[in-house]
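Exercise: predict the fold of this chain.
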Amino acid sequence: MNKDEIIQFGLSALFKRYSYANSHLDLDDVKSKVFDSGLIDSRLSSTNFLEQGTRSLFESYLRHANLASVALSPFVKKGVEFYSSTGFIESNLSDFKRGNANCILSAAERNIDFDWKNLFHLSYKYGPEKSRYIPPAVRFVVNKYAEYEPDSFEAFVKDSVFKTPGQHAFSCRGMFYKAYIANGSLTKKEARKIRSESSAEASEIAVKALVDNEELYPNYDDLVLVISDSKHEQVLITLANALPIHLLPSIMGIHSQYVLGLVERRMEAYERAQEAELKINAII
């Protein structure tokens, strides 16, 4: 064996899924040092990026190398260009939706010119719109689309979800509501549609998103008041636990004894806290 063959053998053994021979090593540490040494890049000039092993190596490089090594790596640069290309994505859509082509997301995140809108339409159009199950990769793409192209995403949700909710499964509607509300886009009219949402799960996801993003909405009180007479107990439970004290009376007219109990306990706890504060102030 010459030097090159020995190095190649060592690299092959290092990146096997598991090997008894290297089981005593801290492989993450070893991989980090190998990537940062530049040995990998010097031997990957003619890499076939279509091979499954190269995909795994690309993802491993991004996980283990330091940021400076990643930024300077010709291998990473080629991988980002290849795995985020429209041709590769279209050829591997099925694998992508099943979570077997994570190299696409890894590359897309590092491509400053990447078109998240296009990937969303490619991955969603032929996939989960009528399915209760949404692959994690598709959820990830939806959030990126909302983050990087908020105006386009907002227009899509307004036209496709709020106007024609029936064309999307309830799980998808919940996913879109959450990202849309997190962008600060919800209007009072749309809040009324969420109140009338046929799916308790989708409506609950939307309300939780509104509660979590209260700071984005100067008219927060008006929005939650619109939803406070929801027909879904799950939604009312969320409101009973999260509404400001001064808005709790808005859900006291409902018929759920469980929800009423939550409201009463919160009101009683608030009154006890107020009484305790008054006593402390009186002593002072």
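Check your answer against the key: The chain is about 65% helix and 0% strand.
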